[in-house]
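Re: weekly structure request thread

Next one in the queue (583 aa):
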Amino acid sequence: MENLEIARVFSQMADLLEIQDANPFRVRAYRNAARLVDGHAKPMRKLVEEENDLTELPAIGKEMARHIHELVETGSLSALDELAQKIPRSLIDVIELPGVGPKKAKKLWKELGIETVDELEHRAAAGEVAALSGFGDKSQQKILTGIEQFRQHRSRFKLVDADRLVMPLLEYLQQSSEVERLEVAGSYRRRVETVGDIDLLAIASDAKAVMERFTSYPQVTLVQMAGTTRGRVSLQSGLEVDLRILTGPSYGAAMVYFTGSKEHNIKLRKRAIEQGSRLSEYGVFRQAGDDEEGSAERDPWAGEMVAGRTEKQVYAAMELPWIAPELREDRGEVEAAARNELPVLVDLADMKGDLQMHSTWSDGKNSIEEMVVACSARGYEYMALTDHSKALAMTGGLDARRLREQWKEIEEIQERHPEIRILRSQEVDILADGTLDLEDEMLEELDLVVVAVHSRFELPAAEQTARILAALQHPQVDILAHPTGRLINRRPPFEFQLDEVLHCAKENGVVVELNANPTRLDLKDTHLMLARELGLRVAISTDAHRVRDLDLMHYGVEQARRAWLAKEDVVNALPLEDFLKRQ
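Done, posted below.
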């Protein structure tokens, strides 16, 4: 089992124990263990293999250590199986719906006998949920909306989760000497924020041996197909993976075809036909006669093969430069390529600083100096420390007095680290009326003012829009953070007029954030394209709450590339001197 899956089991244990009214300390122990495992840099399976003492890890006691060993060695947890005999495991899906949670799930189960999402939908549609104390019409409608979203997302994995599941599989397959080349294609390669399944393409000296290794991967729970050159399996996580073993001459054409998108491929095939050739997953073929279509149906290799070994050859055969996978969505990239007008996309190496992160002064896990050292180690010229403002009391948000105390510490640390500029900043809450959660005289003393909505997501669209517009017109505001408030597969964007907000940001010189945390990726790619069209600058920030979160920057850069952003479009791709002049 990978860390993601172990953490999920611990979270499920915590949810079911909470429904059972178990000791709160025991529930908390499972939740803490889930957080630790999910965020740990090294796979638990490797720690077990190396016979490390797991109890040396924070939040991992003897019981949790035994559970981890059992999960790694057997793929299941007997304690969860026993608990599921008393409480329906299907309630876990109910718990995860927006507006439910363990306490309400227990009430639904005990009072209405609801055990599944389907049952909940039926009873809510009939109005029975609203009649329960603690629910009401609004809560019932929120649950119905949440069920619709649950059905849309349940079969899709966040990109970060797909990474955690795919990387160990690639490592496992690459240990085989028969594997000569192995890459991931599909939406995963295009770095779409969620993926439905995984496409692996390989070249192998012994296809049979590689296919047998693929289907024997320890995480495989079902082999759906295992042929000579193609196999499909389901992993324990539910992720489905295809493996196709190819020949060298057609590998590049297959990479184009299986990377997609479907719409991009259609555009390419149409262009090939217009030029008197045929494009398929096998290569680019020059047409040889009047019966080309019928010949191709009978023999996919019909005609003279003019390209196929590499993607660059395939695109060149259609008189196009190579197109980056992130752009292949049929959003005008083929036409731009034909005009030689593709942008030089922003790259991770272009990033000069990170403009949102948190420390132990609010809800971060590392000290200011630890964050500074980590940013310096990543080669950044500057960083902004943006602990929360006082409205977010649960995060330990800073009022004016504590903020001034923090500035003193920043000054001391800055003296010890002249290699990087520490910007005094704060993530200031936009209150319900559009005012900011920090006094004007304090805002004026900040190097960078980052504002965000963290509450009252349920406001009507007109009120929410007016709230954000009012904040953006404050003369001290520099960046609007995670503008839509969404959490991928968990919480939809709050309702507001994004186009009005973007226009207002442009008029007032406010930068919009692309939050690189892969649970957010906010703004999404299509919104970023609109921002680009308006000439808005974007800040790609990690919103790091611990040192290792700083490594999430690449998810933001990948999202920016999908939106056609060049480094000129990204404010924190500016060198320090230029960035400070802009401010």
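The chain has a mean pLDDT of 92. Residues 319 and 338 are 7 Å apart (CA to CA).
Next request, please.
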